[in-house]
Amino acid sequence: MRNYLNELTAIRHHLHRHPELSSCEQNTAEFVHQNLSKLSPTEMITNVGGKGIVAVFDSGKTGKSIGFRAELDALPIMETNRFAHQSEKPGVAHLCGHDGHTTILLGLATWLCDNYDKWTGRAILIFQPAEETAQGAKAMLNDPRLIAIQPNYLFALHNLPGYETGSIILREGIFASATCGMKLRLTGKTSHAAYPHAGINPQKAMFHIATTLEDLPRTVLGEETAALLTIIHLRLGEIAFGTTPGEADVMATFRAHAYEDLKSMMSQAETSISAIAESYQLKYHIEWVEEFASVENDATAVSFVRKAAQTLKLREINPSSPFPWSEDISYFSQRFPTALFGLGAGIDHPQLHRPDYDFPDELLPLGVSIFAELIKQADLC
Questions:
Q1: What 8-state DSSP symbol labels residue 318?
Q2: With the CA atoms of 111, 113, 114 and 120 taken in that order, what torsion angle do they form, in degrees rounded to the nearest 10?
Q3: Please, are residues 94 and 19 in contact by the beta-carbon 8 Å criterion?
Q4: Model's pTM, two decimal places?
Q5: If exposure means fewest CB atoms within 10 Å of the residue's CB, which of 23, 159, 272, 275 is most exposed?
Q6: pLDDT given for residue 1 in this prediction
Q7: Which domains can be identified in the chain, with CATH numbers?
Q8: Is 67 helix (H, G, I), strand (E, B) or coil?
Q9: What are the DSSP calls for 122-189, one per residue?
Q10: Contact, 31 vs 48, CB < 8 A?
Q11: Residue 306 C-alpha from the chain's centroid
Q12: pLDDT in tens, 159-208
């Protein structure tokens, strides 16, 4: 196979220098569109579910429709790396590797055009916006133009630090967890600090709710559960020494392997919060944000990844339990037979979302090779 490393590295470094946050990927999408246009795909659809792009390459030969998905968005984190391709946008950086994933998909587009004699059917390349906020996949799936394009199988990879470089991390069933964020506002009554009895201070209720929420995984799902609930933010009143606070905020992240377990915890949280707020004579408002379903890997799609790894002589690693993090491809996995797999980024490589993370460029041609092999494997069945 042609070695795409130099040209792919240039693309990846451009994307890394110019990151854009979720739902703001205008320039990223335009860059992807320009690169795809040079390859003359059979069909290209823009502004799908926001800034998303779908490119269809048709071989002109009978075969399956195979989909591949990559993400366009970056993170609101200040990068600490100091190299030529570091982020040029303060406070925004590609610290999850989406620049690498997008580059691999652009590399696959080039491979498809270079090798029309080596594959059949259709390849559907999906460049998704707003993965980090759990908005992009649902928005794309609700776009009627994407509904008309039905892949037989959908594949995606995510680089995973902590694993041997180039290894394949693969699991049937639940691959990544379901999560959801909760924003709670408690409202009492503000008063002068000299007359606290004249107000309704939500302080005790805030801590009561926080400790109750932390126990929810065990109380709802049992002592052996792998579910987690993390309190990420508490705020009481304002910095005003003459005032007794009348408002409080509690924010938490709910996390469970199975989507139904996540929903059970969310339901019990609402019940508990209502009872506690009432006991302290407080009003309350709950907002659920960034809800990710669990990623469900299809057994047949996983078998194609396994065969591709074997053909390319890559080490396969099979985790005994799902990953605790989440991925927006979960909503695609509810619609199409899907396989999300990990691509090892190195045992000692900085972890995802760390300010010193950078996608390993040596994985770029390997990612293209894996996707290309998946087209061949899926077409054999």
A1: -
A2: 80
A3: yes
A4: 0.93
A5: 275
A6: 52
A7: 5-176+294-380 (3.40.630.10), 178-291 (3.30.70.360)
A8: strand
A9: EEEEEEES-TTTT-HHHHHHTSHHHHT---SEEEEEEEETTS-TT-EE--SEEEE-EEEEEEEEEE-B
A10: no
A11: 23
A12: 999 999 999 999 999 999 999 999 999 999 999 999 999 999 999 999 99
Dig out the tokens for 88 from the structure.
């040029």
Q: Where are the beta strands (DSSP E) in the chain?
A: 43-48, 52-58, 65-71, 122-128, 153-160, 168-169, 173-176, 178-187, 191-192, 228-236, 243-244, 247-256, 283-292, 295-297, 316-317, 338-344
Q: How far apart are the first and last CA of the chain?
A: 23
What is the token pair recorded at 275? 């009872």
Q: What per-residue confidence (pLDDT) applies to 4?
A: 81
Q: Which residue has the tokens 């290894």?
A: 167
Q: How far apart are CA 94 and CA 350, in angstroms?
A: 13
How many helices (H) and strands (E) the chain has is answered by 11, 16
Task: Report the candidate in 114, 115, 112 with the shortest Cα–Cα distance to residue 124.
Answer: 112
| Sequence-separated (6 or more) residues with CB below 8 Å from residue 228 | 217, 253, 254, 255, 256, 324
pLDDT at 182: 98
Identify the residue whose tokens are 């090798």. Answer: 115
Helix (H, G, I), strand (E, B) or coil at 14: helix
φ, ψ of residue 44 to 5 degrees: the values are -140, 130
Strands 65-71 and 122-128: parallel
Q: How far is CA 64 from CA 102, 178, 350, in A?
A: 23, 30, 38
β-strand partners of 69: 126
- Strand-pairing partners, residue 338, are 154
Helices 363-380 and 5-17, packing angle to 10 deg: 110
Q: What is the DSSP string of 250-285?
A: EEEEEEESSHHHHHHHHHHHHHHHHHHHHHTT-EEE
The C-alpha atoms of residue 68 and residue 87 are separated, in whole angstroms, by 26
Phi and psi at residue 204, in whole multiples of 5°? -65, -40
Residue type, 247: E
How far apart are the C-alpha atoms of 14 and 34, rounded to whole Å? 13
* Identity at 133, one-letter amino acid code: T
In the predicted model, residues of the chain with pLDDT beneath 50 are: none
**Contact yes or no for 53/33 (Cβ under 8 A):** yes
Long-range contacts of 231-236 (CB under 8 A, 24+ apart): 232/181, 234/206, 234/210, 236/202, 236/203, 236/206
